[in-house]
Amino acid sequence: MLEQGESSTVGAEELPLAGIRVIEFSHMVMGPSCGMILADLGAEVIKVEPRGAGDKTRYLPGSGSGLFPAFNRNKQSVQLDIAEAADRDVALSLIDSADVLLENFRVGKMESMGYGYEELAQRDPRLIYCSLKGFLSGPYGQRTALDEVVQMLGGLAYMTGPPGQPLRAGASVNDIMGGMFGVIGVLSALRVRERTGEGQVINSALFENNAFLVGTHMAQAQISGEPLRPMPTRRATWAVYDIFRDKHDDQIFVAAVSDGQWHDLCDEFDLSQLAGDPELETNQGRVDQRDRIHRELQAALSRLDLAEIEEKCTRRGLPVAPVNTPADLTTDAHLVASGALASTGLPSGDQVDVPLLPLTFGGRRLGLRSDVPTPGEHNNRYRDGPADTSATDSGSGQTAKTDPFATDTDVEESKTQSQ
C-alpha cells in the first residue's frame, strides 16, 4: 500500500536492472519487445539503428504503425551502419561496454558481419548474448519465420479460427511472448554470471514459443485420442461460457464455472425454472442441456443493457466482460485509474497511450522515463562522445569494463554493477 505522497512509479535508482547496459540490434517486434522490457526494468538499453532514416519499423503503415511506438520507450538511439568498416570500431566499443547484447536478425547475419557470439565472447567472456530467432536449433533452424508462419505451423491458427478457416491471433503473441522468454533468459544468465563470472548465449524462438502456447491442446489430443476441434466449435466444458447480447444487440461475455456460480446466475437473472431443475444440478447435466440454458439466459439478458448485465454479474462475482476493441482501452476506467497507461511522446510530436508492463513492485509501476527516441537522438553520447574512461571494480580488484561513452555518473554506477 502506497503512503500518501509516495510516487506511483519506481524511482530510477531503485529499478531492478539499474546499472545493466544492453546493446539492442533489432527490428519489428520480438527484439524490441525484449529490449523494452529490460529497459522498463531499469537497464540502459541502447538501440542501434542504421544511419539515415533509422529502423524501417518506424515507418510501417496500417496495422504495423503501432509497433515502434509500443515497444521502444525508455531506450537510447544511436545510428551505426554495423556492416561498414567505418562504424565497426564504435559498434565493438559499445558491445565491449555492455552486459547484454540483444539481436533478432536472420540466422547467420550477425556472424557474417563479425558480431557472432563466439567472436564477441573472446573479447569479453562476461557478455550475455541474447539471440531471438524463428526456430531453435533443429531441422527448421534455417527457415525464415514470422508470427503468422509459426501460428500456422504450430496449430494456433487452426485452433483460433472456425473449421477450415485458420486465423491469426489478434496480436503478435509469439513475437511478444518470445521476447519475454528472452528477458527470462537474460535475467537467469545475469544470475549465473554473478556466481561464475561467465556470460553465455541465450536463444529464444517463435516456433517453440508457439508450441508452448498450444501445449494444453497437445496434451488434450493425446489424452482423448480424438481430433481437436477449433475453439469456436470446441466441446463445451461449462454450459455458460459464451458471448450473449443485450437489449441493444451489443455483445457481452458471461460465464458460470462452478455450482455456486450457476445458482447465483439463476438467482440474479430470475431463471427459477432452470434453478429448480434437478437435471441441471451437475456441471455435466448443464453441459448436456447447454442449448436450452442459452435460450433462456439470452431471453433474460435481452431485457437489459450492458451496464445492467455487468453490474448484476459483478455484484454476484460472476465472470463478465463487454466485448471491447483495443481502442476502448485508452479510456478504460480501471487502466486509467490504476496508472497502467503511459502517455508516450513520438518523434512526430504526437502522444499515444500505451500499456506499461503488467507488474508492480511494492504497489508501484515501472514507469515511463523517456519517450520513443528520434533516429540517432543519442549519437552525440554513444557515437560521437567523449574520450575513454576506465573504472576499477573495488569489490573484486579487477578492472571494470572500459566505457568510452561514460559520464562521471556512469563511471560510479559501473563500479557498482561490475561486482
Automatic annotation (TrEMBL):
Species name: Brevibacterium koreense
EC numbers: 2.8.3.-
Cleaved signal peptide residues: none
InterPro entries: CoA-transferase_III_domain, CoA-Trfase_fam_III, CoA-Trfase_III_dom3_sf, CoA-Trfase_III_dom_1_sf
Taxonomic lineage from the root: Bacteria, Bacillati, Actinomycetota, Actinomycetes, Micrococcales
Keywords assigned: Transferase
Highest taxon, organism lineage: Bacteria
Chain intervals with Polar residues compositional bias: 389-401
MF annotations from Gene Ontology: CoA-transferase activity
Protein name: CoA transferase
Region (Disordered) location: 363-419
